[in-house]
Amino acid sequence: MTQKNNVWRYGDDINTDMLFPGKYTYTCSTAEEIKPHLLEDLDPNFAKNVKPGDLIFAGKNFGCGSSREQPALGLKAVGIQAVVAKSYARIFYRAAINQGLLLIECPDAIDSYQEGMDVRFDLAQGSITIGDRNFSFPTLPPEILAIRDAGGLLEYTRQKLNKQSLASDL
What we know:
The chain has about 170 residues and is an alpha/beta fold. The protein has eight helices and eight strands. It has a single domain, classed as Aconitase, domain 4 (Alpha-Beta Barrel). The protein has a four-stranded antiparallel beta sheet. A four-stranded parallel beta sheet has the order 2-3-4-5. It is globular, with a radius of gyration of 16 Å.
């Protein structure tokens, strides 16, 4: 797939408060309530200008900080195609999987990207092409892709339970 939308670029240690300010933790719980506040203290233009299919490129330790679902839920809800980073905080990584947000760890790609370059992914091969350079990343387990394709862990679980229920009815 070729990326024709924005690539939002951020540095190291982008924490969950930068992604979604903690002051809204107990007042915003739905995707629609979360979306206007995404990255508001780090990049006030993000929530106003992000489009479905956009990418985030970031440095190391993306999503560090407190354990909250809102940042991953919000990024998925605005249509972020993928976050490509040098590394992820463990808790954010799990929250992103739960929401069906695609995360790719590929440090060399981050260092090589220049504004305006075309970005293409081949998830099956574990490769990202930026301009005319190709970079490898570990292929994602089929379970992670299935969760993403279902729209998140909750919907994936519902689908699995429905299939089991149908099979037991036979």
